[in-house]
Amino acid sequence: MWDVVSQYGMVFLVGNYPHGPLGGLAMTVTLSVCGLVATFPLAVAVALCRTGGIPWLRAGARAFVMGVRTMPLLLVVFWIYYFLPTVIGVPISAFATILLAIVVYQTAYLSEVIRAAIEALPKGQLEAARSLGLKYVPTTFRVILPQALYNCVPGMINQFITIIKETSLGYTIALQEVTYAGNEVNSILLIRPLEVFGVVAVLYFTLCFTLSRLSRGVETRISRTRGLVGE
Amino acid sequence: MVAELIEGYQVVLSDPYLSFVLTGVGNTLLLFSVSWVTAVPIALALVMLRSSRVSGLRIFSVWYVEYHRNIPLLVQVLIWYFAIPVVLPPPVNDFINRHGSEIIYATIALGLFSAAYMAEDIRGGIRAIPRGQYDAASAIGLSYVGTMTWVILPQALRLSAVPMVGQTLILFKITSLASVIGVGELIFQARQIESETFRVFQAFSVVTLCYMVGAFTIMSVGGAIARRVQLTRR
């Protein structure tokens, strides 16, 4: 395994960069971070639509979440990669395809995490804000969301882990992330698939496992502070 | 424009392409059902191992779950398809190759992957059972196995019914990843039809509809079962 790492380590980490496009683990992380950053505001918006009092927004948000839940992510990727260009008239890059697919998909899933956190807040918070004379917008943005979003940080980290794993679908449309890099190295070496995919697995595992431990730590911390404050 | 759209559907929904779609439905259902049936007993075994007195078995169960949860399923599928055959003895390889290596490895990968997640769902159910149930079971003289079989699991499985339905839906959707190694399931067939007829919209929309029908069936049937098995609230 070591000679594979020493010879092709850089391909796994950064792809062909600086002689070619950025790839490997660096691409996976870049794509995941972009995905989370782009998804977050949309997911908050969908969660607010679902918990808000406007019937058609509620129904629309619900239909969107339900619709996404019935579709495999790979199907979303292919819809964007093969069909979207025929509508907009310009080809779409593999990076943009995966990013868009993750944003569409995770907006639905992350909005459910945020909605659960909003609904888990004690009702007294909303009532207290209302009785202080706060309208919907200040109640939401200064009372409800700061608490709900803080409480669902572990859930968001878990969603981020899911996003990291989902970027591996870039492999199917030749986006040069770490799974694709693994496949590239494998097709050069041909007879060492166990070592090559072992390296890929170790890279994902290290990244995701660390984050999942972080999520668990944050969860304990939050429940402790929340417990001290009392509800 | 509308005529063109309908004409496209006529092409996609008549032979030879209709049989592509039907083969895809068949393979997707095959992957889904076989890997579900594989996953559930493995999940139960993992949960049992997790509370075993032998520390080696406990550690195995923990790391099995961590491995499958922290590596993308696609990578697991590639490992099964490209790397595992290298270490298997030739007679086993021959046997697998004769019976369609793609679908066999895809089913194994999907089954083992889902087992890890289902084990976590069941464990969540077990953790929700109050301590008193164990004490009561041992007070009436039940062994560990008896306690689990007659007291804990019947309650825990009911509690984990809802997350299990969710996991079943996920399993149905991720069978799509088998297309990556060339299993002729729905998405693979959609790509095939699309590249032969250039009817991208029609090919993908037919397949999308198939997934939606399957997903809604799982949600409604699974939901009904999950409601049915719930104990009445005390």
Overview of the structural elements:
The complex is a heterodimer of chains A (231) and B (234). The N and C termini of chain A lie far apart (53 Å). Chain A has 231 residues and is mainly α. In chain A, α8 (153-166) packs antiparallel against α10. Chain A is built from ten helices and no strands. With 234 residues, chain B is mainly alpha-helical. Chain B has a single domain (2-229), classed as MetI-like (MetI-like fold), CATH 1.10.3720. In chain B, α2 (17-50) runs antiparallel to α3 and α9 runs antiparallel to α11. The longest helix of chain B is centred in the first third of the chain and has 34 residues, at 17-50. Chain A binds chain B through residues 67, 69-75, 78-79, 82-83, 86, 161, 164-166, 168-169, 171-172, 179, 182-183, 186, 191, 193-194, 196-198, 200-201, 204-205, 208-209, 212, and chain B through 66-67, 69-76, 78-79, 82-83, 86-87, 169, 173-177, 179-180, 187, 190-191, 194, 200-201, 204, 207-208, 211-212, 215-216.
How would you describe this structure in keywords?
heterodimer; A: 231 residues; mainly alpha; MetI-like fold; 10 helices; 0% strand; B: 234 residues; 11 helices
Describe the protein's topology.
The complex is a heterodimer of chains A (231) and B (234).
Chain A: H1 2-14, H2 24-51, H3 55-69, H4 73-88, H5 94-120, H6 123-131, H7 136-151, H8 153-166, H9 178-189, H10 193-229
Helix pairs in contact in A: 1-2, 1-9, 2-3, 2-5, 2-8, 2-9, 3-5, 4-5, 5-7, 5-8, 6-7, 8-10, 9-10
Chain B: H1 2-12, H2 17-50, H3 55-70, H4 73-87, H5 90-98, H6 101-127, H7 131-139, H8 144-159, H9 161-174, H10 186-197, H11 200-229
Helix pairs in contact in B: 2-3, 2-6, 2-10, 3-6, 4-6, 6-8, 6-9, 7-8, 9-11, 10-11
